[in-house]
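can u pls check wat happens w/ NAP
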Amino acid sequence: MIIDGKKVALDIRNRIKSHLENFPHTTITLATVIVGSNPASQLYVGMKHREANAAGIQSKRIELDENISQQELEQQISLLADDDDIHGILVQLPLPKHLNKEKMLEKIPPKKDVDGLTDINMGRLLQGQKQLVPCTPLGVMRLIEAYGIKTSGKNAVVVGRSSLVGLPQVLLLAERGADATVTLAHSRTQDLAAICKNADILVSAVGSPALINEAFIKPGAMVFDVGVTRLENQTIQGDVDFEAAKKIAAGITPMPGGTGPMTVACLLENTILAATLQGVLPRSH
Ligand code: NAP
C-alpha cells in the first residue's frame, strides 16, 4: 500500500476550506518570516502560502535580510505577536548561523506558534496537554489515522531525535490513545538495522539518502519517510530506499508525495487551531 500524503493533505485542506466558509466575515492570517535567500526555504514558504490561500487562509510573507541582527529579528516577531490580525507565526528554519533560534522562539506567543516549537507548546506535549504540535510528526499521525493503522501495543521506531521531528514524534506515538512502544534511534545507535527490523511502525527523519533499505524493514511494517535530501541532479531522495522497501513493507509513504504535503496540511490545521485558541473562530466541538 502506498500511503498517499497528497490525497490526505488535500482532504484536510478541503475540510479547512469548508469550515472557514461558515465564517465569511472572519479572515484568518498566517504570517511567515524568512531570513535570507536559502532556495529550499523560499520553495517551502512559497508552497505554504499557496496551500494556505487555497484553503481560504490569508498569508503575509515577511522577508528579512540574511544579516539581520538578533534584536531586529526579535522586534519583527514582536510586531507580529502584537498584531491582532495575525493568527499564526511561522519562522522558516534553519536561521542563518549568527541567529539564536531559541531566543527568537521566545518572542512567539504560544497561541500563535503554528510550528509548535515554543517551550510552552513542547512542554504541553510532554505533559499530555498538547495544543499546537510540530507539523511534521503531526502529519505522520494524521496519515496513521487516515489509513486506520493500529498503533496500540505496536513497536514503533523513530530514527532521528530533533525537537522539530523525532522527539515530538516519539511523544505522539507513545501518548495515551496511540499507545505504541517506542524506540528512539540516532547517530550513536548501535545496529540500527536490527532495531528498525523490530518496528511495526518505522519513521525515519534523518536526511541520509536511502539509509533505510530492505535489511531494516520488518515484513508487514508501516514505513514513514520524513528525511529529504536534494541530490546533485536536483531530484529529491528520502531516507528510505523506496523500491527495496515497498517489497517488504505493508505500507510506505512515497518521496515526494508522502510526509511533505502532510507537513503543510498540518500547518494549516494548526493555523485554524491557533485562531480558535485566540477566540477568533469558535470551537467546533
Ligand atoms: P536534524 O536536526 O539534522 O536531525 C537529524 C537526526 O538524524 C539527528 O538526531 C541525528 O542524530 C540523526 N542521524 C544522523 N545520521 C544518522 C544515522 N546514520 N543513523 C541514525 N540517525 C542518524 O534534522 P531534522 O530537522 O530532524 O530533519 C530530518 C530530516 O527530515 C531532514 O532531511 C529534513 O530535511 C527532513 N524534514 C522533512 C520534513 C517533511 O515535511 N517531510 C519536515 C522537516 C524536516 P544525532 O542527534 O545523534 O546527531
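Residues 136, 159-162, 164-166, 185-189, 192, 205-208, 211, 226-229, 259-260, 263 surround NAP (CB under 6 Å).
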